[in-house]
Design brief:
With 284 residues, the protein is of the alpha/beta class. It has eleven helices and ten strands. It is 37% helix and 18% strand. Strand 6, helix 4 and strand 7 form a beta-alpha-beta unit. The longest helix is centred in the middle third of the chain and has 14 residues. It starts with 5 loop residues before the first strand and ends in a 5-residue tail after the last helix. The mean pLDDT is 95. The structure holds NADP nicotinamide-adenine-dinucleotide phosphate. NADP nicotinamide-adenine-dinucleotide phosphate binds next to helix 10.
Length: 284
């Protein structure tokens, strides 16, 4: 099965189905004062040069340091060659004004005049009325502060309700999905997204780098034992990308991991292997 590498967006731009994940780049919640900034920048640039054009941006990570590293990484690239998806932690906000402030901060910190997508990070309880949030996001699109609206961790009902409040269409829903976690498949959110032309973006495809470890129910290792032409990471990515309506995040600051992971586009799982991986249902 030939896996297509890019989606064509409504505005004609190409979006790589493997995006540049950033969790841990510059630090986790707090800035890592021992972080290898030079390496992180160099690996982000390398991924961009390989055509991975979507970058996960989260202002609350590493005390803002991650965004600084992203800004440096993109500075010599043409604006059309990268797609910035920027997370809004609305669950931490008290008023709608903070939404606009966060968008402005992204624009300023990343040194761009427009974001590509603004993303509601989580649908958990917020002080902000969802109707007002939808209005503010639509206004941001109207005012050309962003091209698209996206969400993360929304289930079917939350998507349905939020889409009804928005004038613009939700571009994608980012969810945890992998060989080892099929919760959003079971609760039919993935089916709902497909029926409504909302892309699904999978995160934690590698089980935080532990997809090749032997533990009960890990079919990736079973497949790998019989097929050493692929690595566990390639099996994990290929399984997700076989679904032609899905994108995924790939986070790595290790050059050989990056090359290995990009290689997942070109390998092929046998039907028997896909079937075996489909049986795994172990929520990590
Ligand atoms: N919206 C949300 O709520 C949410 C939540 C979690 C994650 N995300 C996004 O999704 C991205 C991916 O998720 P994740 O980082 O949590 O987990 P992941 O993709 O499952 O795993 C990332 C880890 O795997 C390692 N790795 C990468 N390639 C490898 C390979 N070929 N072999 C062995 N190890 C490998 C990386 O280390 P090296 O850097 O050393 O390669 C990194 O530590 C995040 O970075 C973030 O952008 C979003």
């Amino acid at each position: 099965m030939k896996i297509i590498k890019y989606f064509k967006l409504p505005d004609g731009r190409k979006l790589c189905r493997m995006g540049i994940g950033t969790w841990g780049i510059g630090g986790y919640f707090m800035k890592n004062k021992y972080n290898d900034d030079e390496n992180d920048i160099s690996q982000i640039r390398y991924q961009l040069s390989k055509g991975l054009n979507m970058i996960d941006c989260w202002n609350n990570q590493a005390d803002g340091h991650t965004l600084q590293l992203i800004r440096k990484s993109i500075e010599n690239f043409d604006r059309k060659d990268y797609f910035l998806i920027c997370k809004l932690d609305v669950h931490k906000m008290q008023s709608i004004k903070e939404v606009r402030t966060a968008i402005d901060e992204y624009l300023e910190t990343l040194n761009v005049t427009k974001l590509d997508a603004i993303q509601v990070h989580t649908p958990s309880i917020t002080e902000i009325d969802m109707k007002n949030l939808a209005k503010e996001l639509d206004l941001a699109i109207k005012n050309e502060l962003s091209d698209y609206i996206a969400v993360a961790n929304f289930n079917k009902d939350q998507l349905n309700e939020f889409q009804k409040l928005l004038k613009n269409k939700i571009l994608l829903n980012e969810i945890q999905y992998s060989v080892l976690n099929k919760e959003y498949q079971k609760n039919v959110t993935i089916d709902f997204c497909k029926q409504n032309n909302i892309y699904v973006m999978a995160y934690r495809v590698l089980n935080r780098g532990y997809c090749g470890e032997s533990f009960e129910g890990n079919k990736i290792v079973e497949v790998w034992k019989d097929n050493k032409n692929l690595t566990p990471a390639q099996i994990a990515f290929n399984y997700v990308l076989r679904d032609q309506e899905m994108l995924c995040w790939m986070k790595s600051v290790n050059r050989s991991h990056i090359n290995e992971n990009i290689g997942a586009f070109d390998v092929e799982l046998k039907e028997k292997e896909v079937e075996m991986l489909g049986q795994t249902d172990k929520k990590i």
